[in-house]
Amino acid sequence: MNNIEDKKQEIIEDFSVxxxxxxxxxxxxxxxxxxxxxxxxxxxxxRLIKGCQSRVWLDSEVKDGKIFFWADSDAIITKGIxxxxxxxxxxxxxxxxxxxxxxxxxEIGLKENLSPTRANGLFSMIETIKRIAEENVREExx
Length: 142
Known about the structure:
Strand content: 5-15%
Structural class: mainly alpha
Radius of gyration: 15 Å
Number of strands: 2
Largest sheet: 2 strands, antiparallel
Shape: globular
Order of helices and strands: HHEEHHHH
């Protein structure tokens, strides 16, 4: 697996191919369609990300010192956004995720090209991923 910076750069380059945001939205939709199927029985309230207008479920597991994420959403663009985040952060160490600035989101222009409610949802997704990582960092130090 390439390092986190390489993965973020790859996404920045993928988004730079498209001139129009409608094409970038289509790319996000395609990412969501390729998201690993999420089990229906895991679509529980405790896995819902608070602060998203649409429903987004996020689950994680620590294995061999790495955090792996699985997610789903009932909205197609939101599903693409969480898929994008998972593609970068799943399989990384808790410390690597907790210390990341998620700056590639700004570089691809995602936040400013989302509706305010979707931008709030994006922020909630990022905060949830960071919180999971920070909790794991604390556990590792105990």
